[in-house]
Amino acid sequence: MKPPLRRCAIYTRKSTEEGLEQDFNSLDAQREACHSYILSQKAESWIALKDHYDDGGFSGGNMDRPALKKLMSDIEAGKVHIVVVYKIDRLTRSLMDFARLVDVFDKHGVTFVSITQSFNTTTSMGRLTLNVLLSFAQFEREVTGERIRDKVAASRKKGMWMGGSVPLGYKVRDKALLIHEEHAVLVKRIFHAYEEMGSFLKLQAYLEKGGYKTQNGYLFNRGGLHALLTNPIYIGKVRHRKQVYDGLHQAIISQELWDAVQKKLGGSPKEREVKSVSQGFLLQGLLYDESGSLYAPVFTDKSQQLYRYYVSRSKSGKRVVPKASRERLPAQEIETFVEKALRCHIEDPQKLAEMLSMDHALDHALLQNLSSECIRTDTDIVIRKAIRKIIIRYDHLEMHISRSGLLSLLQQGDNEMAEEIYTLKTPFRIKRALKGTLIIRPPATRTPEDIFSLPPHKLKNLVRGIVWRDEHFRGTSILAIARRENCDGSFVGRMIRHTFDIA
Questions:
Q1: What confidence tier does 272 reach under pLDDT thresholds 50, 70, 90?
Q2: 335 Cβ partners below 8 Å, 6+ apart?
Q3: Chain CA centroid to CA 476, Å
């Protein structure tokens, strides 16, 4: 008896638009390979649908893809029996998204096939193997981000220009910094004027009177002048985080003028020490408690060790005596926490699209460029441009993100967009450890993104739980599984329940 007809939908995807204009591109190659596989299953009554489900220029890290949406719609309409892809990561790179897709597939009796990996989701072993492979695909995606950051750091050490906002006095040609003669004259004038005046107020008045403005047509402010006068790029060096390296570009000012200006900026040795510590507070002026009081930066010197804190102050300006751990925050820990939380969102194009209220599909290129720019740009610059306010609450942290500030990293903000704020809420906890030390950490919850941070024995139990869950859903009792595995039934049930917390 001939098997019933099985309609197959071929899904193809490519992360970038590069090469899609060619007569025979990557999508065509994937489709041809899948079509040949379907022809090889003709005896099983497989037939390829004429509809094309092609997503060119879309990341596998999200579900917002037009062809994928069309495919899911046809599945729900009963038009598809089998989904055929070249590789599993063409469908998705997210374990959580894959779990959702499998639920839809199972609901409508659809089978998923990867022609280069030979998997079938109708079996528990095939489903387990797919989960494991998806975890590795997601892991590879995260490692790629780390490689980009490492590459930027290595390039900065060699003195290379890695992009970002072009400093006043320079222009970019062939990815290299060249001196902009007209602007370089202004830079020299600013350095010489500050060396002579030693005052930001006098310098601002001098520049305003002379009609001098920034590249964007604004008057110079104190923060911009300080950043300019302390930027080592003007003596032929590049800075990466807190390290300074010899650059490949030409210097605009001499080392002698630079040293003289830095001495003026620092004042006496004691003043220089205090100012350097004060300027080292990354979140100064941004942190607030629930009552609206600003956290002020303080530091103390004990046993030749410098300790930095943010301490909540009352509206009267007097320091609040810390009665709870939230009234005094360790500077290094809270700064690291904010940096990681912010970069986690802006380096992911899908999350970035949500922050900027954009369409991930329509604005894909812009989001990718901005995400890459944030990876290349120093943390202090990203935070100062992006964050307008941070509120410390009992169990979470609120970051008020400026959309125009983020876009200004690509020189597409400020002038074109009004100040619109996106509120990013990040869970965290403050615990008081021994000797009064404060520790900031996220709550102990697991998500699909941190599956590889599980200890080996927990990862093993998770895999066993997925297998047992699929067996149980297909009719095998928990007691039968426990007898076969020679363990307690409550343990099997607990491992199955735990898989829902992870995936």
A1: very low
A2: 281, 282, 283
A3: 42
